[in-house]
Amino acid sequence: xxxxxxxxPGQSSWQDVPDPEIRDATDVIVRVxxxxxxxxxxxxxxxxxxxxxxxxxxxxxxxxRVVEAGSAVRGVRPGDRVLVSCISACGRCRFCREAAYGQCxxxxxxxxxxLIDGTQAxxxxxxxxxxxxxxxxxxxxxGEAVLLADIxxxxxxxxxxxxxxxxxxxxxxxxxxxxxxxxxxTAQLFSPSRIVAVDLAxxxxxxxxxxxxxxxxxxxxxxxLVADLTGGLGxxxxxxxxxxxxxxxxxxxxxxxxxxxxNVGVHGRPAALHLEDLWSRNVTIxxxxxxxxxxxxxxxxxxxxxxxxxxxxxxxxxxxQMAEAYDIFGRAxxxxxxxxxxxxxxxxxxxxxxxxxx
Length: 358
Description:
Elements: E1 2-8, E2 11-16, E3 28-36, H1 39-45, E4 62-69, E5 81-84, H2 94-97, E6 123-126, H3 129-132, E7 133-135, H4 142-145, H5 151-161, E8 170-174, H6 178-187, E9 194-198, H7 202-210, E10 215-217, H8 219-229, E11 235-240, H9 245-254, E12 255-263, H10 275-278, E13 284-286, H11 295-303, E14 313-318, H12 322-330, H13 332-335, E15 339-343
Parallel strand pairs: 8-9, 8-11, 9-10, 11-12, 12-13, 14-15
Antiparallel strand pairs: 1-2, 3-4, 3-6, 3-15, 4-5, 5-7
Helix pairs in contact: 5-6, 8-9
Organism: Actinacidiphila cocklensis
GO molecular function, one term: oxidoreductase activity
Domain Enoyl reductase (ER): 8-342
């Protein structure tokens, strides 16, 4: 099969690799119908995630069809269309029993495209299938559903829920990439008084406005705007969705006393924590890796057309155009890319491997 293989910082290629095999009774093999590229994949290519070894297939989000299932899998069977979650969950460890699947200590957590081969391929092996894939109705567009593999659960759980957004709040979202935009969308479920979107790119600020932001600002304008809107108090909730020291420190300056700062961004460099300013302000800072415990809820909302996931997709490609898709996504400031989706035309049949996959 073909897959995108990481060869070290700044190096990757779409190349032939062996087909994945069932290794454990809880595995499934999924033929990929749609994948997307995450900002975390760019961090990996930049060398910010040293756990990823050269030779690893990248990607941790996909929609596809089960073509083979291990003997212990009960929730899906060959032929089922499924969402492949970015988080795998053993279901037995302490963290999984608390629904903190991102911290799974039984061999799961964020492993796809990180510690094991991932989804940016024609086929992918998914461990712990009963808790790590979700059946999808045939009516749901795979290019839309794939956005629930990572960015919507991440924005909702790590941003909105960790930030404790409540009715009447002023919410500032710093970074209007796909996750920041998903945070703007899902924060509205809690009826905040206003949402302020902050970014450097005009095209992303325009997208934020379309998706429900009440005010927009560049980084240099954000502090004054939030102060003006809140009578100098500061935002009740600030969501960091960039992953840079500058963005984190801006968030810390904008949050009000007693407020919440939710860090969603993936940081590759140290950020200063100015306790000399924060120690007396009763500020709660939450970090986190997504657990995807909210995925069933978000899927119901998507099926009922209550989640505008398709609004985030700006570019589509075939799987074989992986290099072009990475280039477009990596130059988002120039190309206007929000979320790119790659897929293959639907197949007429589902085949179980008996020496080779159709």
